[in-house]
Amino acid sequence: MKFQLIGVNHTTAPLEVRERLAIPESRLADAIQRLVQHPGVNEGLILSTCNRVEILAQTKNGSGDLRAFLHNYFKVEPGRFEPHLYEYQEKDAILHLFRVASSLDSMVVGEPQILGQVKEAYATARAVGAVNSQLDLLLTRAFAVAKRVRSETAVGSSAVSVASVAVDLAKKIFGSLKDKHVCLVGAGKMSELAARHLQAHGAESIFVANRTYERAQQLAARFNGEAIHFDALYDNCDRADIVITSTGAPVAIFKREHGERFLARRKNRPMFFIDIAVPRDVDPEMNKLDGIFVYDIDDLQQAVASHVADRKKEAERAEAIVQSEVDRFLARLQTLEVVPTIVSLQDHLETIRQAEIDRVRGRLGPLSPDQEMAIETLTRGIVNKIMHTPIHTLKTAAKESEATTIVDVVRRLFNLQDKQSAKIKSTVGSGDRD
């Protein structure tokens, strides 16, 4: 199995790069289908969030050129994002995926949203047939590792989140959130989470604008709020003291002229924008207006950093768990490499045993049930003794670097057909899904 991963995240690329590579949910299925059509790629998944865009693939002998896929799909020159890319193979790719799913690579270590985002990407890839036996085995293990990290460490307890940090910043600006009004632009999960924090800290009312009015109504109902039509956004936005925006629009929907209009209507009372969108919903020029405070996802990252130190010890415990799980998964992969050969050997020798019994049965004449049992026991015992040494050798070799060579020798010695057993692989892997 050859796993490859390539991507950018909040530590390697500024927001300007990440928003250029972001893939909206509406285009994700098509992007994944194009990925598995790329030369050398057998299975694939794309994870696109506000903090990362990553491509995970199972490839033919590590031959998938994922950089070429990025260049072709986004139609940009390599120099635009090449310095910000990271790329991992095999063990390093597995380690990175486990850390991402366990929220150890997140802007906010321990936040729970990333696991849900990975699961959504997995569901999308499975729906289009891009994840099968090998990536399925890897991803389901990643989910189990994340579950173990969360249950065995306190890395996610009382987790500081982007939403909670945004609330802290709002409190610093306004002094108190009591009687403050909130506008949600877009009905994303992060926006909803931030709104819950704001309401819990005293925000008085919430109204929601979304391109799909029905979704705006559904989200507004959760906060006993008000839904407004998206085309009425600019006529209503100035009612809000705090605007949380995450629409997935390809260009900014709030520009300097909008900010000037809002301030005039509000008689210069301040407005606080939390822009969680990638690409950004709020033009940076708006931040130059006196009375408007704009924080994008990278600004929130800086605010988060001061909250992370107290989780260092729990994060170290989580890292140890992840590393042990990587070693465990690699050992299982090595075992899976030899399982099809063991099954083929057993089938091959069983076929010979049955053929030899059938060949001599006519010369033996009628046999009693005890005689039939004796022949069965005798021949099975011989076959088992013949199989013992090569099977033991294969299982031992699975833990060593010479596994491929030993498999090839055994297949040649017994003239086994080169066939794989996907059923065996999925059966062996399913024992660790929890």
Folded structure, characterized:
This protein has 434 residues and is α/β, with parallel strands linked by helices. The chain has three domains: 2-158 and 312-326, Beta Polymerase, domain 2 (2-Layer Sandwich), CATH 3.30.460; 162-290, Rossmann fold (3-Layer(aba) Sandwich); 335-430, no CATH class. The chain contains 16 helices and ten strands. It has helices spanning 15-21, 25-36, 66-74, 90-101, 113-127, 133-152, 162-174, 189-200, 213-222, 233-236, 256-265, 297-308, 312-364, 369-397, 403-413, 422-430, and strands at 2-9, 41-48, 52-59, 86-89, 181-185, 205-210, 226-229, 242-245, 271-275, 292-296. The strands form two sheets. Strands 7-6-5-8-9-10 form a six-stranded parallel sheet. Helix 6 crosses helix 13. The two termini are 22 Å apart. The model is unreliable at 419-434 (pLDDT under 50).
Summed up:
This protein has helices at 15-21, 25-36, 66-74, 90-101, 113-127, 133-152, 162-174, 189-200, 213-222, 233-236, 256-265, 297-308, 312-364, 369-397, 403-413, 422-430; strands at residues 2-9, 41-48, 52-59, 86-89, 181-185, 205-210, 226-229, 242-245, 271-275, 292-296. The chain is α/β, with parallel strands linked by helices and 434 residues long.
